């Protein structure tokens, strides 16, 4: 059963003005409308790329967006700042209307777009709970039945009869999320407001959204730059870029694609200068088994990371530490080796059939214990491991975890 359908929706804005901003533009639109013609200003406009100046005074915040969402789906919407994520949520929440296209929804929508949305600052927390419930179309009896559960989840019981204008931003978002999640709407829309809460509350919110989606069969739209949270909560995703859908589908595919496009780095790092007067990295390179610089490996390929060191003062006791991180900056594993005084080249070999498919970065440092100093480089080399369709592949090509080694079984 469909919960929501977006059909060719677009949203256009005029830069620097409210509305069209000029009488001539308003008259041109009106004249086109009474003649049954297309709005002349929909024929112009550029994509919403903030990094370039552009020539048109009109921009498309969203352009030709189409998707269908089934009831009970948890959908992550991801993309860079300015990609159109918040605009899309405002359209779905009916805060603003699309310039073109239609949105079909099945059921009531509860949205949490920014801190304090829908709250009256002069009213108390108690009054705002009833106000929000009424806006969502719930009866006072329904709200009263959920009231204690909302207050308990929010953790602001002591301040429930205090005007919300005196709440901190964290208290504000706690109560706002508790209201949106507990009132019985069929669709829950959550923007990046969870970034305001502390780690404990964010975890609590993710758990609640998971319960709402999987347990109660309600639909959740979730925008966040935290790919770990998106991957944990959502089954499918929408990847927006410059106001258009770049990809729509499995959340693993979506997050991998987004993170890969966001990665900076190459197969080689070369220090521009001596970074430490005693000892420092000169060069770090990622090779394949044939000693070719490489950034893409198959699951069953050997990966070689070579470190070239400048040991100017012939330091006798030092260690190289290496950490391999995945695209979510999770430490996959670390390794270390002592340095030898007359040897400046070292290789770390990652055995075949060890790392799962995904994107990886290298962080490394040289530690000199007796001097309490070290030289460090972070996220300096990038490489990918790709799925070759080997026998280990499960769940449609994606398994759990970043390590999938060939271990001995007895």
From TrEMBL:
Q: Which CDD domains match?
A: ABC_KpsT_Wzt, Wzt_C-like
Which PROSITE patterns does this entry report, sorted A to Z? ABC_TRANSPORTER_2
The reply to whether Transcription figures as a keyword in the UniProt entry is no
> Which domain of life does this protein belong to?
Bacteria
**InterPro entries membership:** AAA+_ATPase, ABC_transporter-like_ATP-bd, ABC_transpr_TagH-like, Bact_Polysacc_Export_ATP-bd, P-loop_NTPase, Wzt_C
Annotated Gene3D superfamilies: abc- transporter (atp binding component) like domain, P-loop containing nucleotide triphosphate hydrolases
> Which SUPFAM superfamilies does UniProt cross-reference here?
P-loop containing nucleoside triphosphate hydrolases (SSF52540)
Query: What UniProt keywords are attached to this protein's entry?
Result: ATP-binding, Nucleotide-binding, Transport
Q: Give start and end of each ABC transporter domain.
A: 42-267
Q: Which GO terms describe its molecular function?
A: ATP binding
The family assignment reads:
Belongs to the ABC transporter superfamily.
Entries under PANTHER family matching the protein: TEICHOIC ACIDS EXPORT ATP-BINDING PROTEIN TAGH (PTHR46743:SF2)
Q: What is this protein called?
A: ABC transporter ATP-binding protein
What is the scientific name of the source organism?
A: Kaistella yananensis
């Amino acid at each position: 059963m469909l919960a929501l359908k977006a059909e060719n929706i677009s949203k256009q804005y005029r830069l620097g003005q409210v509305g069209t901003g000029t009488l001539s533009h308003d008259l041109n639109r009106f004249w086109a409308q009474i003649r049954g013609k297309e709005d002349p200003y929909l024929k112009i406009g550029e994509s919403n790329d903030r990094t370039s100046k552009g020539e048109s005074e009109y921009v498309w915040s969203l352009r030709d967006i189409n998707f269908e969402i089934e009831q009970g789906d948890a959908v992550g919407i991801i993309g860079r700042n300015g990609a159109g994520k918040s605009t899309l949520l405002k359209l779905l929440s009916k805060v603003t209307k699309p310039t073109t296209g239609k949105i079909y929804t099945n059921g009531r929508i509860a949205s949490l777009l920014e801190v304090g949305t829908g709250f009256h600052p002069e009213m108390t927390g108690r009054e705002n709970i009833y106000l929000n419930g009424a806006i969502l179309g719930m009866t006072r009896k329904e709200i009263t039945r959920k009231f204690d559960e909302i207050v308990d989840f929010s953790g602001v019981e002591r301040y429930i009869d205090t005007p919300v204008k005196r709440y901190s931003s964290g208290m504000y978002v706690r109560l706002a999320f508790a209201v949106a999640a507990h009132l019985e709407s069929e669709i829950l829309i959550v923007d990046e407001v969870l970034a305001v809460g502390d780690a404990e509350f964010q975890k609590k919110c993710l758990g609640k959204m998971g319960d709402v989606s999987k347990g109660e069969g309600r639909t959740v739209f979730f925008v966040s730059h935290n790919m770990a949270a998106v991957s944990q909560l959502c089954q499918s995703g929408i990847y927006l870029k410059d106001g258009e859908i770049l990809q729509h589908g499995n959340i693993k595919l979506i997050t991998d694609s987004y993170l890969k496009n966001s990665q900076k780095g190459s197969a080689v790092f070369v220090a521009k200068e001596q970074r430490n007067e005693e000892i420092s990295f000169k060069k770090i390179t990622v090779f394949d088994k044939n000693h070719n610089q490489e950034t893409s490996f198959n699951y069953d390929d050997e990966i070689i990371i070579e470190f070239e060191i400048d040991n100017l003062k012939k330091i006798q006791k030092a260690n190289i530490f290496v950490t391999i991180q995945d695209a979510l900056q999770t430490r996959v594993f670390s390794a270390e080796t002592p340095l030898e005084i007359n040897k400046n080249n070292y290789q770390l070999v990652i055995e075949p059939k060890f790392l799962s498919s995904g994107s990886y970065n290298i962080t490394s440092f040289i530690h000199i214990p007796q001097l309490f100093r070290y030289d460090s480089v972070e996220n300096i080399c990038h490489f990918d491991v790709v799925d070759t369709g080997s026998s280990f592949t499960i769940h449609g090509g994606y398994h759990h975890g970043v390590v999938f080694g060939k271990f001995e079984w007895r």
